[in-house]
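Hi F.,

I've been meaning to write this up properly since the lab meeting, where we talked about keeping a consistent format for the predictions we share between groups. The idea is simple: the sequence comes first, exactly as it goes in, then the structure tokens exactly as they come out, then a line or two of notes. No screenshots and no reformatting. I'm using this chain as the first example so we have something concrete to point to.
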Amino acid sequence: MISKVIIGAGFGDCGKGLVTNFLVFDLKSTLVVRFSGGQQAGHTVVEKGIRHVFSNFGSGTLKGIPTYWSRFCTVDPIGIVNEMADLIKKGVDPILFIDPSCPITTPYDVMHNQRTDNDNGTCGVGVGTTWQREQDHYSLLFCDLFYPEVRNMKIAQIILHYPGAVDIKNFLTACDFLVECPNVSVGNEDIMSEYRTRVFEGSQGLMLDQNYGFFPHVTRSNTGLTNVLELTDENLDVYFVTRAYQTRHGKGPMSTAGFKHNISMDVNETNVTNKYQGEFRRGLLDVDVLRYAIMRAGDHEQINDANLVITCMDHIQNEYRFVKNGEIVICNDAKDFIRKVSSYFSFARVYASDGPESKNIKRYG
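Output, unedited:
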């Protein structure tokens, strides 16, 4: 069996969906595994003229690849129903396996998230508040949805847990739909053994990890290898993904914020400034932060091959440059940029992309 892992090497928003779609070769026996985060993902994939931003399904879905939503991910019933309808409208029939112990995000979690977490930066879809509620023992898991009386009593307790009122009619309808929907099935970790190739699709980035990012501007997830190593004991082919520049949302620290950048603002960008995440910021790539993040990613003894993928090369205008030791490094051209950036690491392979489709990814070393 083959296990490939896609990990964002910075603050997220780097092209994990693009790389996941690129690594899906064996269409008959591949499973995409989501191993962190949840519905806050916004992974853009363009395949055969179809463009879709994945939040509740894996980024191999446009190729017909099923998704396993592992126990480390929250589940948003309304989000799944809405995204499934959108995919079906686009001619795609998605397949989703959900671990029974996945926490369910309720409209109350979303409301509390949007009211309380804005200063630290948040996607506003209730992932962090769902995990906090679970830790407070007001639990609602995917398996509970199959027992309506238990589900309803648990939801009643959650309502008492949060101040304020929310209409949950659509939420309850979505929960009922998931229980009956043929596209959605209960699946535990054994489902992974049925597929020859597992592509583990990460969420956000290493520098947003709850244990070594810049608190409190972090996610409530392990974004590195920690969760993957609990799901499989195989050696891993890991693909660390970064844009050709640094990005992050909101107020958190950004090492190259003081440097003038030359990044195009006119590209087809999924990530934008929004009410809850804050400003979508750009800056020069900092290879020291990149090296730190990769060092902290997890048990490197389990990595068979470590690879680097640099996306969004086409967003750079006029001159390629990055920051090392607080100083700007000027490059002759795109190939020189890729060579110089990768020279600070020991990667088995280096890839770069200059467009939104997986066909735009090419190997450089």
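Notes:
The first helix runs from residue 16 to 23.
The chain has a mean pLDDT of 92.

If this format works for you, I'll send the rest the same way.

G.
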